Amino acid sequence: MRFFQQMFAAGLTSRRIAELLPCWDTGHTDAEQRAMLRAERDRMQAKVDDLQAALDRLDEVIIAITDTHP
User: Using CA atoms, how far apart are residues 37 and 7, in angstroms rounded to an integer?
Assistant: First the structure.
């Protein structure tokens, strides 16, 4: 259940999660499943990178504000 919640929170559709469940349960994948897993991982990594960039920019703003208004 936790796997489903994590994948849903990461932006996967319920259909895509259903496609992943056999991989999770058996530990076996075919070439198409591995390609799909890699594509989903790349999509998640891009999302993480975007969030990290936004967080870094917010930190810069907070520091700039703090420096000018202690």
Answer: 12
Q: Which amino acid is at 9?
A: A
- Residue 70 CA to residue 67 CA, distance in Å, equals 6
Angstrom CA distances, 46 to 1, 14, 41, 42, stand at: 25, 20, 9, 6
Give me 37's structure tokens: 């897993």
- Answer yes or no: are the C-beta atoms of 12 and 25 closer than 8 Å: no
Instruction: Outline where 1-70 has alpha helix (H).
Output: 2-9, 14-26, 31-68
User: Of 1, 19, 10, 2, whose CA–CA distance to 42 is shortest?
Assistant: 10
What pLDDT digit, counting tens, does each position of 41-57 carry? 999 999 999 999 999 99
Residue range 1-26: average pLDDT? Answer: 84
